[in-house]
Design goal:
- There is one protein chain.
- Helix 2 crosses helix 3.
- The longest helix is centred in the first third of the chain and has 16 residues.
- The protein has one domain: Lipocalin (Beta Barrel), CATH 2.40.128.
- A hairpin with a 4-residue loop joins strand 2 and strand 3.
- The chain is of the alpha+beta class and 132 residues long.
Length: 132
């Protein structure tokens, strides 16, 4: 199953402080923020996410994301253009996501009201999410 925008709201619904609505008010009045939000939504619908893998300095929309329901919960697989991948487990305890396998932990940082950055080793991903 490919990543869908409807799932983005559930990804990190409990991560960070409550949203006071300021992002919505700013996005409604700032054309640049509106354009950025629209671009992120379009990427999410296409199954692509911005990533910087292997220590790359800049983000590019070249990684794909898939979601699968498992016995553990929802597993996200982030696939790199070179064939590599990372798997994340969506949590319900406020952390958002954790590494689903491997020895390296996932570090999650809220970027805005609708985006998080996930770092595992030298791979970085920007994922659509609702941060609350």
């Amino acid at each position: 199953m490919l990543w869908t925008p409807a799932f983005a709201g559930a990804l990190v619904a409990a991560c960070g402080p409550a949203d006071d609505g300021d992002d919505v008010a700013i996005a409604e009045t700032d054309p640049l923020l509106e354009a950025e939000a629209a671009a992120r939504a379009e990427l999410a619908e296409s199954g692509l996410v911005n990533c910087a893998v292997g220590g790359e300095s800049g983000f590019r929309p070249v990684c794909t994301i898939e979601q699968v329901q498992s016995d553990e919960g929802v597993i996200l697989t982030l696939r790199h253009p070179d064939g590599g991948f990372r798997r994340l487990l969506v949590t319900n305890d406020g952390r958002g996501v954790i590494a689903a396998d491997g020895a390296e932990p996932a570090e999650v940082t809220p970027m805005s009201g609708n985006q998080i950055e996930v770092v595992i080793a030298d791979d970085r991903y920007r994922l659509p999410a609702t941060v609350r």
